[in-house]
Design goal:
globular, single chain, 4 strands, 1 helix
Length: 68
């Protein structure tokens, strides 16, 4: 899910959420619906490694591209 919104302080936020089912996020201003933009169709282990690294080291760069 792709989310885009403006925080109360005026900062623009673009975020990607990964869900096993229907996804909605609760943020400072309430529930935020998102736009479904794709699915994870393979290399779930690679995704787990990126997420684990982000959880231990903070924000990480993630490149999302169309599968050929």
């Amino acid at each position: 899910m792709l989310y885009h919104y403006v925080r109360p302080n005026g900062r623009k936020v673009f975020d990607i959420g990964i869900y096993y089912a229907r996804g909605y996020s609760l943020i400072e201003v309430g529930w935020l619906p998102g736009n479904g933009i794709g699915r994870i169709d393979g290399n779930i282990e690679g995704l787990r490694k990126v997420v684990a690294r982000a959880m231990s080291k903070g924000d990480q760069e993630l490149i999302v591209k169309r599968a050929e």
